[in-house]
């Protein structure tokens, strides 16, 4: 298990740790409910430096990646970011990535454990282009801010007014002696911001946020509470809710697809599915009430399998189990009640994000 760069700081704060795809993450700091409340009501700070990164350099880097992902890369301005999926010629997902276009390279920010898989997929199609792939995981780390007081925290830490950032919008700033990049991450939470920090500056930036966040009731938040926020926002995670048989449209990833960019690997499958107007199954929210269940548990209607659970969490805010899962299109109407496994537990289909 690859340890976090800030392991010792988290240990001092009473953190408990877990493994996610071979990388260490903070599970919690001893009070998951309090961490969740901070993400919902004040401001929360999450160490997401377990994420992995790739850099692409070379004169042909932009055109090469443009033909490999579902999103428009050529039209991306320098310093801008976007979210994209990588898919096979059959339309099945290889992974997903946040793409940042910089002056001299392209940066791909991916889920833990996904770096090697994405690199091997890209290298398979890299033939005569002037482009080169590099592991950038040890160059950059991601710190995640959540909660309605995030703009206040950034204002206090930076010493200048900080307005909310829209999804994928970027803003370079100087913080704690480091040149960092703020990236809007509002899909998780309305005021969410990811902070991309050089690895050598992580400790200084983390401590600056903790100091500035004291009067704002900042709390560090671990993986478990963040997963609740993610599920309630209806944001799927590759490796949990998306696997190598998932088609992006099944996972509600229309925001990751450009329909005007021209050819890319798997485009024909996406175009046909879009023209057809529906997928046989789609990711949905599911309320399990007081009951829990394991990911992978089947969902049934009148004894027939109509889906399965992918992520199951316990929401401290709603005091119920909330989940993501795939449901056949005939049973996606909010309010539909499905049987969980062999019963007697039930799951109620709900629209995403959860209210």
Automatic annotation (TrEMBL):
Organism, scientific name: Melittangium boletus DSM 14713
NCBIfam families per record: ygfZ_signature
Domain GCVT N-terminal: 6-261
Name the UniProt record assigns to this protein: Folate-dependent protein for Fe/S cluster synthesis/repair in oxidative stress
The keyword Methyltransferase is assigned to this record: no
Keyword terms of this UniProt record: Transit peptide
InterPro entries in alphabetical order: GcvT/YgfZ/DmdA, GcvT/YgfZ_C, GcvT_C, GCVT_N, TrmE/GcvT-like, YgfZ/GCV_T_CS
Xref: Pfam families: GCV_T (PF01571), GCV_T_C (PF08669)
Aminomethyltransferase C-terminal domain sequence ranges: 281-354
Signal peptide positions on this chain: none
Keyword Metal-binding attributed: no
């Amino acid at each position: 298990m690859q340890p976090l760069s800030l392991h010792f700081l988290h240990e001092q704060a009473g953190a408990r740790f877990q493994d996610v795809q071979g990388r260490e993450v903070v599970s919690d700091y001893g009070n998951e409910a309090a961490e969740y409340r901070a993400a919902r009501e004040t401001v929360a700070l999450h160490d997401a430096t377990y994420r992995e990164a790739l850099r692409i350099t070379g004169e042909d880097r932009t055109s090469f990646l443009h033909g490999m992902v579902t999103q428009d890369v050529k039209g991306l301005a320098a310093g801008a970011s976007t979210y994209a999926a990588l898919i096979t010629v059959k339309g099945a997902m290889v992974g997903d990535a946040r793409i940042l276009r910089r002056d001299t390279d392209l940066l791909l920010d991916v889920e833990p454990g996904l770096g090697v898989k994405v690199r091997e997929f890209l290298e398979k199609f890299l033939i005569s282009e002037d482009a080169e792939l590099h592991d950038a995981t040890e160059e950059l780390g991601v710190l995640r801010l959540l909660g309605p007081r995030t703009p206040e925290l950034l204002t206090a830490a930076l010493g200048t007014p900080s307005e909310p950032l829209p999804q994928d919008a970027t803003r370079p700033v100087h913080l704690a002696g480091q040149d960092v990049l703020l990236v809007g991450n509002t899909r998780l939470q309305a005021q969410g911001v990811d902070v991309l920090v050089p690895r050598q500056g992580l400790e200084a930036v983390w401590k600056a946020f903790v100091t500035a966040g004291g009067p704002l009731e900042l709390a560090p938040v671990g993986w478990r509470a963040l997963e609740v926020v993610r599920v309630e926002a209806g944001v799927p995670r590759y490796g949990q809710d998306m696997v190598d048989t998932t088609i992006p449209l099944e996972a509600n990833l229309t925001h990751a697809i450009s329909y005007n960019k021209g050819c890319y690997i798997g485009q024909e499958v996406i175009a046909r599915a879009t023209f057809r107007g529906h997928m046989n199954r789609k990711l949905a929210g599911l309320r399990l009430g007081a009951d829990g269940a394991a990911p992978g548990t089947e969902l049934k209607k009148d004894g027939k399998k109509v889906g399965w659970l992918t992520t199951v969490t316990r929401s401290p805010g709603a005091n119920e189990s909330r989940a993501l899962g795939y449901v056949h299109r005939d049973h996606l109407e909010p309010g539909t009640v499905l049987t969980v496994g062999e019963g007697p537990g039930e799951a109620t289909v709900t629209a995403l994000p959860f209210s």
